[in-house]
Amino acid sequence: MAKSPKISASHEPGGLIVHISGLLPSLSPAEQRVARLVVSDPAAAARRTITDLATAAETSEATVIRFCRSVGMDGYPQLRIRLAAEAARRIEPPDARVVGGDIPPGADLAQIIATIAFNDARAVEETAEQLDPAVCEQVVEAISGAARIDIYGAGASGFVASDFQQKLHRIGRIAFYFPDVHTALTSAALLGRGDVAIGISHTGTTSDVIEVLEQARTRGAATVALTNFPRSPITDVADFVLTTAARETTYRSGATASRLAQLTVVDCLFVGVAARNRARARKALEATAEAVQSHRVGANRRRA
Amino acid sequence: MAKSPKISASHEPGGLIVHISGLLPSLSPAEQRVARLVVSDPAAAARRTITDLATAAETSEATVIRFCRSVGMDGYPQLRIRLAAEAARRIEPPDARVVGGDIPPGADLAQIIATIAFNDARAVEETAEQLDPAVCEQVVEAISGAARIDIYGAGASGFVASDFQQKLHRIGRIAFYFPDVHTALTSAALLGRGDVAIGISHTGTTSDVIEVLEQARTRGAATVALTNFPRSPITDVADFVLTTAARETTYRSGATASRLAQLTVVDCLFVGVAARNRARARKALEATAEAVQSHRVGANRRRA
DNA sequence: GCCACGGATGAAACTTACTTTCAGCAGGCG
DNA sequence: CGCCTGCTGAAAGTAAGTTTCATCCGTGGC
């Protein structure tokens, strides 16, 4: 036994494949044939049955088992699983999707999907990373204690504002959203100390939203700005500034990345508020879910 | 695909786990127990023998096999290998953020943010992975050639529907969204061959949306469903099925993950449509951007 | 309320895959 | 030349995976 009673650790930490390659010369001829097959295409080997692999290596099943033991595995099934895992790991990481990049003219849909998803996911992750928990905490506290919450947003950001309003409403907070500037201004004029006003604007330059937020601030409400640009005008009228981290999206992406980033922030605030009073929030959510139940039809189909 | 000449394809190239999550509600109770075990710890499942897994799921081996078939595998060994590969691919996120998991009661805001962002980003990525480009392509083609596009969605999905409508409108496509069922039904009744109707429902069980989509189909329009559950009722009335891959979100997350996933799909379709006629789309977008310019105030501040 | 039906389920029979045993055989050495 | 040693595959044995089938349970029709 040239190979074994040694305490050289059947460790093989990094790569099983590498480990096998290293052991190759110390294996018997028949086992080497098996090893070569395995090393050259681990994924394919993982798919084969032991008989299959034995045949391919022009040897018997017994030899394959011996090979498994030689490389430190308990048996063939274990080897198979390890191989599958190895093979999966060494799959090329996503190709050259330029972050924040444009979509090349010749791109097919699969590429488009990959690029968009990559950028969208990145926007969400990066937004979360740069969010200041301390500021969030303060905003959550303000919202939790507010008598009333006004949320402003125009265009695309209006969707997010509306979403936020709905969320807060569902857990029993008094929140409003106004699709119309004039109504919003009127409402802002009625805010006072103890109320909260939230303005959402990706660019931070939407005059309508800024104006309304400013009005709210004058009246003594705590103002919150949600924007992608920490130095944009909207931040001048905000007590608390929360920023998203969507890279400047090209016109083609439809600005969805910024939308997703905003929604993520909104979700964080929402969950933060809900967490402050679990019992009440849970109850409210269950009640609202119950309410739409009659508008749902039977369950999913079984089988194919 | 035993069910209809549907174009939705048992695709699942990206994530097997995700695929299983989506199918979960369409599985029988015993199979669901198996599925939950598998989803919650794929790596562990891969290590188990079929008998072992069956015991853990408090069921018989036969059910495990049935489960394998239900999710599109040939048998248990194949599932095992795929599972091992999947598990290896997803480099375990360092800390204990349970995917799709609940937020622990004691969590501070920083944890909440991290958890939410992680789940949201994952939903976006996984949705993109399992999207079938071929189906997308067909939908894009249908939209591009449509005389008119109706988009339906209720509640949270209504936001997405509305967003989609606005996007298409911005690049000069004739698209409509109806917040009200009656109006929607009326509109659907006026659709015909060459028109496209798109129904959005996370659960796939929203009767209002299904009803309207069915009406549209009867009138000869091409129907598209966007849902998280590939076997849900809405897919019965759809010519094309597009699925999102948001894991079942806990009540606390406010279902934002599913929203983001839907938006991502919508964005892909939008970009796909826009890419079909770059010049025209670009021009339209520039014109619309121009239009809101007067509602923007001066640039961002420099310095601190 | 009863019955027929269909789907879900696990026990058991069955098949296939994996593992062990063992005898043959090739090469090396006295 | 004969014996030993270690490699090897055939075949036996065991465990894992798969199929079949009887039972059970809920549903809807009469």
What can you tell me about this protein's structure?
- 2 copies of one chain form a homodimer.
- By secondary structure, the first copy, chain A, is α/β, with parallel strands linked by helices.
- The first copy, chain A, is built from 13 helices and 5 strands.
- Chain A is 54% helix and 8% strand.
- In chain A, strands 2-1-3-4-5 form a 5-stranded parallel beta sheet, sandwiched between helices.
- Chains A and B meet through helix 6, helix 7, helix 8, helix 9 and helix 11 of A and helix 6, helix 7, helix 8, helix 9 and helix 11 of B.
- The structure holds a DNA duplex (30 and 30 nucleotides).
What is this entry, summarized?
Two copies of one chain form a homodimer. By secondary structure, chain A is an alpha/beta fold. Helices cover 54% and strands 8% of the residues of chain A.
Blueprint of the fold:
Two copies of one chain form a homodimer.
Chain A: H1 16-23, H2 29-40, H3 42-47, H4 50-56, H5 61-70, H6 76-89, H7 109-130, H8 133-145, E1 149-153, H9 156-170, E2 175-177, H10 181-189, E3 196-200, H11 207-218, E4 222-227, E5 240-243, H12 256-276, H13 278-292
Parallel strand pairs in A: 1-2, 1-3, 3-4, 4-5
Helix pairs in contact in A: 1-2, 2-5, 4-5, 7-12, 8-12, 9-12, 10-11
The structure holds a DNA duplex (30 and 30 nucleotides).
Determine the mean pLDDT of chain A.
80
Low-confidence stretches of chain A: 1-13, 92-101
So what's the oligomer here? Answer: homodimer
Q: Ends of chain A: how far apart?
A: 55 Å
Number of structural domains of chain A: 2
CATH superfamily descriptor of the largest domain in chain A: Glucose-6-phosphate isomerase like protein, domain 1
Strand order of the largest sheet of chain A: 2-1-3-4-5
How much of the sequence lies in strands of chain A comes to 5-15%
Question: Can you count the helices of chain A?
Answer: 13
